[in-house]
Design brief:
This is Prolyl oligopeptidase family serine peptidase. The protein is an alpha/beta fold. The protein contains 15 helices and 29 strands. Helix 2 packs parallel to helix 4.
Length: 699
């Protein structure tokens, strides 16, 4: 067994091109927001609430005044972008304010009379920031940080341009008391606080609150980041991506101590905290979940009766965001949980505490005496004291011991260990590894793992003269560092006979790997573009269903996911979009040029006479496939056929219901009505195997 360079080279040129294209798109978007408005989207099935709900009617004169002021600011911003040499530095911090008002006007999202005044205040702040940009202010000063008022924490709001859809997403920053500008050399402890659910807490209420309230916690010498997280989805899917992007964007304003960064939250935010803690444990110095939920079925009370068929496929999909299967990963961080003594959501932390006890470890668990769904001050003090203690005693990297479990390569990293291939997705894969830095030796035991990388770039540890003795599943070898980054790196692959060897360079066969492992909803966690057909489908029923689903995705993304939509006709798809985007293609294999061009490389057959999926035939006049698959034109991105996010209005009741409802592929009977759970009757469904082949049919 020999060493192999494991880290992939960054695509610097592609990233630069993408960055420049985003700035161009962003400057255009200042003049036109919500491109591609949907007029034919279907209303939700009666019985399921709209999310967010419709707002109140505001005074027509106020609406007109807001629109005039908004248009003036957007025009000024466009001119300032054109005249600025660094719009990428400041643009989002202005647009986050104007976009909030624009969305409220266009989507009827004023929920209280006071929100009208709040909108004017946001526009006033956008005006101030534009003037500050021209004056040369950047960073915290642009956001309004006052160096003369440091006796108390200061609350600021900022924005970032989402890599998913180019929308400007908001987040809050709490600057600790005593901070002074500039402090570029000092790295600060940083807490991420995930907020609770509020159906009406869209952009204006969120920004207004974040500009005026410090929040539940404001620890000493600690910056606190408050992500918006796409409103009400428990920081899952695109909301999950947003948390990481908010953390990255915050580095424009202050230096983050990556070894003293914590994830915290309450209620819906507590649920989000749990899944960040188990999926990415070594990223966080500490995790502090309060209340929330840790699964779907028990939290919803569906143990005895499910509202839809609990298929083997659904059981696997639930492993994406159900916490308990991943609970052993909590060994990789410091956890302190909170529950109110009489809170109905106490069962979440109780169940995790019981699970880790069964696994042989425990974490501090603070229970607020006689408290319901609230944190009392005594508990706040206990929790803050414990996390401060951990922050003052951070162990040096690398971690000497790593234990990591995963069920999907979407979550594949724990410090210096990275799982890059699995025997079977949604079935447990694990690594137990120890490193002796003095002896320059590593010992690992794996289960369900086929591809593995070791990467010490975070710590910079390089073994002895870039050489490390490795024992993996009883096999011994001396590995040489082949990386060009700091620290030791290598890449390993397990052969069919169980022997671990180096992984060769060059073109790798098609297989599931991190970022390209399905299911369908995974394609909407990263950058995507909707590709519309230029011709009608062969069958009228199928075309009407395609029209409905196309409109539904655009409407739902804009309203529920608070995003913008990139839409192109098939004939207008660009090389840059193929290189950088997941392609969400609607149509059949004759109506959409993109699908027509790659049809022979996709694993299904769809003609006027037949539809064949996983070896089974269906009538193409009233059936349609949905699927995700590596794009044959760019296998590092997905191509998705006829599907948006798979959770529908049924999920609006609770963010615990916002789960992946379809796997890698499915066949839909399009004659059935949308029941707000599925897009039609699911005739068959399943996962592709690890080589993106059908695994013996669906379930």
């Amino acid at each position: 067994m020999k060493g192999l360079f494991c880290t992939e080279l960054k695509q610097s040129f592609s990233q630069l091109c993408l960055f420049v294209s985003r700035i161009v798109l962003v400057s255009i978007a200042l003049a036109v927001v919500n491109i591609g408005a949907v007029s034919n989207a279907q209303p939700p099935t009666p019985g399921y609430k709209k999310l967010p709900p419709d707002g109140i009617q505001i005074d027509a004169a106020d609406r007109q005044r807001l629109q005039i002021r908004l248009d003036e600011l957007k025009n000024r911003a466009t001119q300032t972008v054109q005249q600025s040499s660094d719009p990428e530095v400041w643009y989002a911090d202005v647009a986050v304010l104007t976009r909030a008002v624009d969305l409220a006007i266009n989507q009827n999202l004023f929920f209280k009379p006071a929100h009208v005044n709040d909108a004017f205040k946001l526009l006033d702040e956008a005006d101030r920031r534009l003037e500050a940009v021209v004056a040369g202010d950047r960073g915290l000063k642009l956001l309004g940080f006052d160096p003369d008022k440091t006796a108390k924490p200061q609350t600021l709001v900022a924005g970032f341009v989402s890599r998913i859809d180019d929308s400007v997403q908001p987040f809050g920053i709490v600057v600790p008391a005593g901070y002074s500008l500039p402090q570029h050399e000092q790295a600060f402890r940083t807490d991420i606080w995930l907020h609770g659910r509020g159906d009406t807490k869209t952009e204006i209420p969120f920004l207004t609150e974040r500009m005026n309230k410090v929040g539940q916690y404001a620890p000493r010498d600690t910056f606190v980041i408050h992500p918006f997280g796409r409103h009400c989805n428990a920081f899952k899917f695109a909301g999950e991506t947003d948390v990481y992007e908010a953390l990255q964007a915050a580095e424009r304003y202050f230096r983050i101590d990556s070894q003293r960064t914590s994830i915290r939250g309450f209620s819906m935010g507590g649920a989000g905290c749990w899944h960040f803690a188990v999926h990415d444990p070594t990223r966080w110095m500490a995790a502090n979940p309060g209340a929330g939920f840790v699964d779907t079925i028990v939290y919803q009370g569906w143990q005895n009766e499910m509202p839809f068929n609990k298929t083997p496929t659904m059981e696997k999909l639930l492993r994406w965001y159900d916490v308990l299967p991943w609970a052993n990963n909590l060994r990789g961080t410091n956890v302190i949980a909170y529950s109110g003594e009489v809170d109905k959501q106490k069962q979440a932390a109780d169940r995790v505490a019981q699970k880790v006890d069964e696994l042989g470890f425990e974490f501090p668990y603070v229970i607020g005496a006689e408290m319901g769904h609230k944190i009392n001050q005594e508990s706040v003090a206990k929790i803050d004291q414990q996390i401060a203690s951990w922050a003052g005693d951070v162990a040096p990297l690398p971690k000497p011991k790593v234990e990591f479990v995963t069920y999907t390569l979407r979550y594949n990293t724990a410090d210096w260990v990275r799982i890059t291939g699995m025997v079977e997705h949604w079935t447990k894969a694990s690594v137990k590894a120890t490193v002796d830095t003095d002896a320059a030796s590593i010992e690992m035991n794996t289960e369900g793992v086929t591809h593995l990388e070791l990467d010490f770039s975070r710590s910079g540890w390089a073994g002895k003269s870039d050489v490390v003795d490795v024992t993996i599943d009883g096999q011994q070898a001396t590995l040489v560092d082949m990386g060009n980054s700091r620290g030791f790196q290598c890449r390993l692959i397990r052969q069919d006979d169980g022997e671990w060897t180096k992984q060769s360079f060059g073109q790798q066969p098609l297989r599931k790997r991190p970022g390209l492992q399905g299911p369908i909803d995974d394609a909407f966690c990263e950058r995507f573009v909707i590709v519309l057909p230029s011709r009608p489908a062969r069958h009228g029923r199928v075309q009407r269903w395609i029209d409905r689903e196309t409109d539904y995705l655009q409407s739902r993304w804009k309203r529920l996911m608070r995003g913008d939509i990139q839409v192109v006709q098939d004939r207008d798809l660009t090389d840059d979009q193929i290189a950088t985007c997941n392609l969400i293609c609607f149509g059949d294999f004759s109506s959409n040029r993109v699908l027509f061009n790659v049809a022979d490389s996709l694993p299904i057959r769809w003609t006027r006479q037949t539809l064949v999926v996983a070896g089974k035939s269906y009538d193409p006049a009233d059936h349609a496939p949905v699927m995700c698959f590596p794009n044959p034109m760019n296998p590092s991105r997905y191509i998705v056929v006829n599907s948006g996010m798979t959770f529908r209005e049924f999920s609006n009741v609770s963010n615990s219901r916002q789960i992946a409802m379809l796997p890698d592929y499915a066949v839909i009977n399009v004659t059935e009505e949308d029941d707000s759970i599925f897009p039609g009757t699911v005739v068959d469904q399943g996962f592709f195997d690890e080589q993106w082949q059908f695994a013996g049919g669906g379930n």
